[in-house]
Amino acid sequence: MTSENHVETTVVDGVHHHQYDIVIIGAGGAGMRAAIEAGPGAKTAVISKLYPTRSHTGAAQGGMAAALANVEEDSWEWHTFDTIKGGDYLVDQDAAEILAKEAIDAVIDLENMGLPFNRTPDGKIDQRRFGGHTRDHGKAPVRRACYAADRTGHMILQTLFQNCVKLGIEFYNEYYALDLVMTEVDAGDGTTRQKPSGVVAYELATGELHVFQAKAVIFATGGFGKIYKTTSNAHTLTGDGVGIVWRKGLPLEDMEFFQFHPTGLAGLGILLTEGARGEGAILRNASGERFMERYAPTIKDLAPRDIVARCMVQEVAEGRGAGPDKDYVLLDCTHLGAEVLETKLPDITEFARTYLGVDPVYEPVPVMPTAHYAMGGIPTNVKAEVLSDNTTVVPGLYAAGECACVSVHGSNRLGTNSLLDINVFGKRAGRNAVEYVNSGVDFTPLPDDPAGDVRRLLEVLRDSNGTERIAAIRKELQDEMDKGAQVFRTSESLDHVAEVIAGLRDRYRNIAVQDKGKRFNTDLLEAVELGFLLDLAEVVVASARNREESRGGHMRDDFPNRDDEKFMQHTMAYLSGDAHSSVASDHIRLDWKPVTITRYQPMERKY
Amino acid sequence: MSATTTRTPIAPEKPATHKPGGTLYRGREGMWSWVLHRITGVAIFFFLLVHILDTALVRVSPEAYNAVIGTYQTPIMGLGEVALVGAIVFHAFNGLRVILVDFWSWATRNQKVLFYIVIALWVVTMLGFVPRHLMNVFSH
Amino acid sequence: MTVIESPRTPARPAPKRGVNLEKWGWIYMRASGVVLVVLVFGHLFVNLMVGEGVKAIDFGFVGGKWADPFWQWWDVLMLWLALIHGANGMRTIVSDYTNPGTVQRILKGALLLSTIVLLVLGTLVVFTFDPCPAGSPAELLPSFCPAA
Amino acid sequence: MTTATLETTSTDAATKSFTVTFLIRRFDPEVDAEPRWQDFDVEMYATDRVLDALHKIKWEQDGSLTFRRSCAHGICGSDAMRINGRNRLACKTLIKDLDITKPIYVEAIKGLPLEKDLVVDMEPFFASYREVQPFLQASSAPVAGKERVQSVAERARFDDTTKCILCAACTSSCPVFWTDGQYFGPAAIVNAHRFIFDSRDEEAKVRLDILNDKEGVWRCRTTFNCTDACPRGIEVTKAIAEVKQAILRGTP
Ligand SMILES: Cc1cc2nc3c(=O)[nH]c(=O)nc-3n(C[C@H](O)[C@H](O)[C@H](O)COP(=O)(O)OP(=O)(O)OC[C@H]3O[C@@H](n4cnc5c(N)ncnc54)[C@H](O)[C@@H]3O)c2cc1C
Ligand code: HEM
Ligand code: SF4
Ligand code: F3S
Ligand code: FES
C-alpha cells in the first residue's frame, strides 16, 4: 500500500476511467502468473470476473509436467516429443520445446513461491505417471507429473494468489471485461492499423462501466467448455476473452480441437483426474474387460485422452457399456486400496462419494468423456504476443493460458501440460509486457466514448423484453453440441448443429433479461455470456466442418484418417462481413496457417 | 504489503452494518455447549456478586447474617439453589471439557463425545445432589 | 469531472496499546478454572451436602469454619479466583456484544470497580472476622465462643 | 426444445422427480428496505444439488435471483450459504440429504454485509486473510534451479490447512465473528496455520504475533461451528488450537 501506487480515477459521463501500464484480464493461473511478473515491473491491474481464488485453475487435479527426473530418468527432449506426438503433430514444435524446457523452472518457481508439492522420501518434489508421458520417445510411461495430491491446480491457484497478495497486486474483482478498445493508429508506412488502447469492464456490484486505459493488455480468461453440456468446466467458463478478441476481428486458431477428458463422472461431467489411472486405476467395460489393452497395447489406460475417450465411446456404442442404460464405462480403483485413494486421490474419492454415492474404495466408478479443454483460442507466438494473421503481431496485446493457442497442444493436449502452459506462457506474457511498456511506448489515445459499444450492448439486453429464456437457448446449444460436435463428428452432425446454432442466434435477439436492476445483475451477465458462447460454438462448428480428417481431439467418423497432405496446418478463423447475421458462412472466413516443425517429422501415432 | 482491491472499502473501526435476522443458526454440540457455558457463567457471576455481599454481613452482626441466610433456606430459594448448582456443575464440567479441547488433540477431535460425557456427569452429579438437597430444604 | 479518491481497502488499525492481556486472560481462565473445580465443589459439598445442608448454615456455621485458617484460605482463594475469572469472562462478553465506545467503557469500568470493591471487602471480611462478637446472643455463636 | 435423454429413457424408480419447496431469503438493495422470504416450488431429483435448484429457479422462474457460483463441485468456494440454518456449499449439498417434507431454507451467510439475495460483501473476509501474511517467507535462497527440500513428514504437518478454498463458510458460522465482525475469523487463522507450520517458512513468529492480538486466536471460544461447516473437511478448531499452543510456546 505504497503511495506511489496511488491511482487517480476519474468519472466521465458515469464511466470510470483508470490508467495502468498493463491490464491483465483474468485471475486464473495464467493471469496471476503474468501479474507476478508484471506487478513489480510496471503499474499493473488485474481484472477478473471472479475472485481470483474462484478461477477454474483451482479445479485442476492431477499434476504439472516437468522433466525434473526426481524419481526416474527423464529429459525435456522426451517431454517435447511426447507433447508433439500427443498433439498429433499439429503442435508448433518451437513452442513445445520452450514449454518442455522452461517446465523445470516453472515448477521450481512455484515450489520456491511456497507450493506444497508432494515429496519423495528424500524430500524432493514427487512425480507420478500421466497419460501420454513416456520415456525415450514412447518406450514406457514415465513419472513426470509434479503434483500435490489431486489438488495440484488448487495449490497453484492458491500459491499464485498468495504471491500476488505478497506483491500487493491490484485486483479488480468481479469486474467483467466486455470489450477490448482498439484505436486506429498510423502504422508508420502510410497505412493505419488497430492498436489496443484499453479495456472496458462492467462492475458487477454496481453495474457501472470502467475504462482501463493501458499500454499493454494480457488476456488470460480461460476456456469455454460451457458450449457443451457435459463438461468439467465451471459455469463461468464462457469464453468471454476469446469472444471479445473474435468480435474485434482478430483470428481464432484451431477452434475445432476440443479435448474430451475420458473420466468425467457419468452424467455430471465432474472430473476424475487422469492421475487416478497414473496411480494404476483401470477402465473396464460392462463385462469387466480392460478394454484399453485392445486399443493401446503398450501404454493401455495411459494413452492420450483423445484416444481413450474415443475408445470409451466406441465401447458404449458397440453395446459394451455398463449400467442400466449401458451408457457408461467403469473406472476401477478398488485394487489401489484405501490408503492410496485417501492420500493421493482424496478429492476425487470424495467427489464420487458425494455426487454418485459410489465409494471408489469398494466399487468401480461410472465414467464417460466430458468436455474439458479448448486446444484452440487466440493465436499467439512464443512471446505470448497476439497475432492478427499468421505472422503479424498486434503490439501490446498478449494472451496466455487456455484462452490462447501458442500452439503447444496441437490437436490434443497431454494431461498436465496445461498447468504448465499457464505458468510458462503466463510468465512470458507478463515479462514481455513489462519489457514492452518500459521500452518507451506511450499510451495509445482512447477513441471518443470508448465504452459506447458496451453501453449499447448492455442497454439493448437490459431493456429487452423478449420471449426467449436465456437458459433455454443455452441448454439447447449445449445439448446439441454434445450430440453433434462431441467426441465423434460427421459432416451431417456438424451441419445439423450449425443449423441449430443459426436458429439460436436468431432467437438470442429476442431474449428476456428479467433482472432490470444495476447491482449484482447476474441475469444480465448471463445474457452477455450466452452471446459469447453462441459466437464461439459457431466458430468451433465451422472449423470442424472444414477439417475433413481425424486428428487428435477432432474425430470425423466420415474421415477417419489423418490427412497430413491437406490438413497438416492450423485452422485460422476470421470474422468478416456481418457479425450479427445468423448464418455462419456470412461472417466466418476460414484460412490456414503452417505448423512449425523443428525436429520431429510427423509419424503415425501409435501407443 | 497487501493486495489492494478497489471494491467496497471497509472501515474496520466501524463494524459492518448487518441486515437483521435470518434464521437461528443451527449449530451443533459445540455451539450449544458454548451458549450454555456463557449463560451459566453470567448467572454464576451475578450470584457470586450477591453472595459476597450477603456473606459480608457476618461482619455486621450475627443477626443480620442469619436473617439473610435464612431466606436461602426457604423452599423457593431451595429450588433456586438447585438451578444454581446445576449451572455451576455444568459450567465446571464443560469448562474442563473446553480445557481438554484446548490442549489435547484427541479431545479436539472428539469434543462431541466429551460434550455427552459432560451431560452424563452433570446428570449423575445432580442425581446425587438434588434429592439430598431437597430433603434438607423440605424437611420439617 | 469528478475525482474519486483512490479506492483501497484500509488495513485493520493495529492499536497495540500496552501489553496484550488477551493471552494471559485466556491462560488465567483455564488455570483458575481447574483450581476452581476443587474449591467450588469442596465449598458446595461442605455447605450443602454434609449434615443438614443449607439448613445448617448460619452465623455459627460460618464462624466455625473461619476459625480454621484452612477454610479461611480456601474461601479467600476461591473468592479471588472466581471473582477475577467471572469478571474476566464478563469482560469478554461485554467486548463481544458492545461496540467500542462509551457504553463499553462504562460497562467495563463497572465490572472493574465492582470486582475490586468486592475483592477487598471479601478479603477483609474473611480475615478480620470475629467469630465471637461481644454482646451477641450466645445461641447464634459458634460453640467454641466463650459466650456460648 | 430437446430434453436430455437421461430424463426420457430412464425407467429407474430412483430417478423419479418430486417437488421441493425452497424458502429463499431475498434482498434487493434497490427496492427492499428489509430482506424478505420468498418461496419457490422446484422439480428435483434426489441426486440434484441445492445449486441445481437455485439454477432452476433463476433460469426458469425468476431471473433476478442472485447468487455466486462457478465450479459446481465444491472447489472454488463461491457458493457458501446457509441451508436449513447451517453453512454449506450449495453445490455440495444434495437434495437426498435434506428433509424435503419441509421447505428448505436458503439464505446468505451471516456476519458479512448483505449485498443482494445470497450475495454478501466478501471484502472484510479477504482483508482478514491478507493480514495474516498468507505467503511463504523464506529469506534463505534455495539452490538455484532446485526446490527447497522438505521431508514427507514436514509436508504432512500442514497438509490439512492447505485445502482451504476461502469459501468463508467457517468464518461466517462463527458466533464470535457474528458479534462485531472484527475477529480475524477461522479462515484467516487456517491460512496462517498453513504457513506457520510449513518447515520452509521463516516468519512464523510474525504471524503468531499478529494472531496474538485482541482480535486474534484468543477470541475463539471453541464452538466448533467452523469445523462443522468446512466443506473441505479441515479440522479448523484443531488448527486454531495448534496456533494457540504455538503462541504459548512462542514457536511453532
Ligand atoms: C477439472 C479440470 C481438471 C484439470 N486438471 C488439469 C491437470 O491435472 N493438469 C493440467 O495441466 N491441466 C489441467 N486442467 C486444465 C487447466 O486447469 C486449465 O486449462 C487451466 O487452469 C486454465 O487456466 P487459465 O488461467 O487459462 O484460466 P482459468 O483458471 O479458467 O481462469 C480464467 C480467469 O479469467 C477470468 N475471466 C473470464 N472471463 C472474464 C471476463 N469477461 N472478464 C474478466 N475476467 C474474466 C476468470 O475470472 C478467471 O479468473 C484441468 C481442467 C479442469 C477443468
Ligand atoms: C467451577 C469451575 C469453573 C471452571 C472449570 C470454569 C472454566 C471456565 C473456562 C475454561 C472458561 C473459558 C471458556 C472459553 O474460553 O470458552 C470460563 C469462562 C467463564 N466463566 Fe468459568 N469456570 C468455573 C467457574 C466459574 C465461576 C465460579 C464463574 C462466575 C463467577 C464463572 C464465570 C465464567 C464466565 C462469565 C465466563 C465467560 C464465558 C464466555 O466467555 O463465554 N466460571 N470458565
Ligand atoms: S477453512 Fe474451510 S470453511 Fe473456512 S474458508 Fe477454508 S475451506 Fe472454507
Ligand atoms: S466457530 Fe468460532 S469460536 Fe472458534 S472454534 Fe470456530 S472459530
Ligand atoms: S460453485 Fe464452486 S464451490 Fe460451489
Keywords:
heterotetramer; A: 607 residues; alpha/beta; Flavocytochrome C3, Chain A, domain 1; Methane Monooxygenase Hydroxylase, Chain G, domain 1; nine-stranded mixed β-sheet; 17 helices; 34% helix; 23% strand; disordered N terminus; D: 252 residues; alpha+beta; Ubiquitin-like (UB roll); Fumarate Reductase Iron-sulfur Protein, Chain B, domain 2; 2 domains; five-stranded mixed β-sheet; two-stranded antiparallel ribbon; 10 helices; 7 strands; 32% helix; elongated; binds flavin-adenine dinucleotide; binds protoporphyrin IX containing FE; binds iron/sulfur cluster; binds FE3-S4 cluster
- The coarse overall form of chain C would be elongated
The tally of domains of chain C stands at: 1
Q: What is the CATH top level name of chain C?
A: Mainly Alpha
Describe the global form of chain D: elongated
Question: If helices are DSSP runs of H or I spanning 4 or more residues, what is the number of helices of chain C?
Answer: 4
- Rg of chain C, please? 24 Å
Write the layout of secondary structure elements.
The complex is a heterotetramer of chains A (607), B (140), C (148) and D (252).
Chain A: E1 9-12, E2 15-25, H1 29-41, E3 44-48, E4 64-65, H2 76-86, H3 93-113, E5 127-135, E6 140-146, H4 152-167, E7 170-173, E8 175-186, E9 192-203, E10 209-219, H5 240-247, E11 252-253, E12 258-265, H6 275-278, E13 282-284, H7 292-295, H8 305-317, E14 329-332, H9 337-344, H10 346-356, E15 365-374, E16 378-379, E17 385-387, E18 393-399, E19 404-405, H11 417-437, H12 452-463, E20 468-469, H13 470-484, E21 488-489, H14 491-508, E22 511-512, H15 522-546, E23 555-556, H16 564-567, E24 569-575, H17 584-587, E25 588-594
Parallel strand pairs in A: 2-3, 2-10, 3-7, 10-18, 16-19, 20-22, 21-23
Antiparallel strand pairs in A: 1-2, 4-6, 5-6, 8-9, 9-10, 11-24, 12-15, 13-14, 14-15, 17-18, 24-25
Helix pairs in contact in A: 1-4, 1-11, 2-3, 3-11, 5-15, 13-14, 13-15, 14-15
Chain B: E1 4-5, H1 29-56, H2 62-71, H3 75-103, H4 105-109, H5 111-138
Helix pairs in contact in B: 1-3, 3-5
Chain C: E1 2-4, H1 22-49, H2 59-66, H3 69-97, H4 102-128
Helix pairs in contact in C: 1-3, 3-4
The complex binds flavin-adenine dinucleotide, protoporphyrin IX containing FE, iron/sulfur cluster, FE3-S4 cluster (F3S) and FE2/S2 (inorganic) cluster (FES).
FE2/S2 (inorganic) cluster (FES) is lined by residues 69-72, 74-79, 89, 91 of chain D.
